[in-house]
Amino acid sequence: MWKPRFNFIRIHYAWILLCSLSAFPVLYTYGNLTAEDALLFGCSASTESGLNPVDVKDLKTYQQVYLYVVPIITNMMFLNAIVVPVRLFWFRQRLRQAGIAREVARNDEEEARPATRRESQETAVIDEQAPALAPAPSPPFSAPQRTTTITFDDKAIASGYSRSEKQVLRIPNPRESDRGAPITEIEPGLRRSYTEEADRETLGGIEYRALKLLLKFVFGYFFGLHFFGAICLLPWIHNAPSKYLDVLAESGVGATWWAFYSAQTMSNNLGFALTPDSMASFKDATWPLLVMTFLAFAGNTCYPVFLRCIIWLTSLMVPKNSQTRETIQFILDHPRRCYTLLFPSRPTWILFGIVVILNFVDVVLIIVLDLDNPAVNDLPVGPRILSSLFQAASARHTGTATLSLVDVNPAVQFSLLTMMYIAVFPIAISVRASNTYEERTIGIWAREENLNEDNGVSYVMVHVRNQLTFDLWYIFLGTFLICIAESTLIMDVAEPTFSIFAVLFEVTSAYANVGLSLGGPSGLVSMSGHYTIFSKVVICAMMIRGRHRLHCRDRGRIQPTGIRGV
């Protein structure tokens, strides 16, 4: 009978689908949303896409809370962090099995010892009862004299292990007994020591300790990022100028709830906003834009960079010869063995450089191409640069907007579309390129034809071409299907916002899980909110498929075949 194989990618698909479908009992049952809009909200929240068919501020509080929680439990950082305790559980299971096997071996040895003693006693009794026999005479024999003798050092015999330092002899470590033999017995007080954490660390080795320590890093980073964003925005909004508070009052949103929700939507790269114009009302607010821009980077593309930086800084603060320092160094030296989204030093620096270059180019394009555009140049130079930086970050991550995207230069719109599409490329290429770091030698990845793995540029370009081949036909197919379903709107000259480019922009945003949209006639919701049921289902399919284009089988999700030292 056929049984499905459970691996990370299938479990990930199932979890995302489950969270998406949970929108029906949670959002749809209240009655203020249609079934297709509830599904679109569920898929958008579960994939961090941020395309809203209805203005988020019009939802009930419990529905907004749902849209707060779901992006957290489906976030890329959270789901990859879950792999760490899974691996720890696997380690504990293997160690428990090893402990049971050793206990059985010990019991068998104890049962064998009395039988051996009984056989020796019976043999001795028989020897005593047997009559003494005179030895038969034998011819005289003179053995040759041996002049070679062996003399043992009394101190060596007394100590059992000590030898001269100049002699070549392995000194058994404290865990070994019986002169260097493996552990075969457990002291009576330590019969169940294999279930104790200290002994797990001893038997599991440095990799087990590394996973335990990494668990604290990844979850501390994830929840700490949300907390950091909230404590930065909360004092500001409560002391903000009246024009910002008036925006929240008109939207019926509390200042505290806005701070917590905005921190969540930026940290998770969700893109939902409690204000109808996204973040356009705050485009000249320096502090929240700085904080939100940092959260957008820290929650997505720069996550591997910042995580490695934190681990490296921690290594500088612990004693050099401590076990913690050794464990941290193992994480830094073998990052992909421990965690999916932690890379070696060189790929991390390359990733950081790519992020800086892409954002710099995007900011320059937004500023230069819209120098005479009132939609952009109504701000002073400083706030305009910051607003452009925020928009550049949003184009690859959150999908929030400080600019009216319909009114910007068409070249800027095209650059934003391009940036959305390549948003996942830096991390995706880092994942694939760093797979060779450990996986290539153990055969997880098949060797591709005409691929020179020693040429870094050639190797990366091959993966770029593969990524393009993997993605483009999904985007073109989705655009084609929506053009068929929405042909009436696209051909209506009275609706200039609906065009083939706008459809392509929406599909790319959904597939890239970004959430930017050129909007519809109302301008308060995403363009997909005005689509027919069929087109909304296509958008949902694009979101779910695009959510999984980064995930692949790699060392971060595969258990080792054995534990050394057990």
Report what the structure shows.
With 566 residues, the protein is mainly α. Helix content is 60%, strand content 0%. The chain has 22 helices and no strands. Helix 1 (8-21) packs antiparallel against helix 3, helix 3 runs parallel beside helix 4 (61-73) and helix 11 packs antiparallel against helix 12. The two termini are 36 Å apart. The chain crosses the membrane at residues 12-31, 65-90, 213-237, 289-313, 349-369, 411-431, 472-491, 524-544. Pfam families: TrkH (PF02386).
List keywords for this structure.
membrane; ion transport; mainly alpha; 0% strand; potassium; 566 residues; disordered C terminus; transmembrane
Compact overview of the structure:
This protein is mainly alpha-helical.
Question: How do the helices and strands follow one another from N- to C-terminus?
Answer: HHHHHHHHHHHHHHHHHHHHHH
Give helix % range: 55-70%
**CA-based shape:** globular
How large is the share of residues in beta strands?
Answer: under 5%
Q: How many separate domains make up the residues?
A: 1
> Uncertain spans, ≥5 residues at pLDDT below 50?
124-195, 436-454, 552-566
The biggest beta sheet is recorded as:
none
* End-to-end gap: 36 Å
| Overall pLDDT level | 79
Number of H- or I-type helical stretches? 22
Class by SSE composition = mainly alpha
Instruction: Let me know the number of strands.
Output: 0
The Rg value, from CA coordinates, equals 33 Å
Family: Belongs to the TrkH potassium transport family.
Region (Disordered): 104-145
InterPro entries: Cat_transpt, K/Na_transp_Trk1/HKT1, Trk1_fungi, TrkH_K-transport
Membrane topology: Multi-pass membrane protein
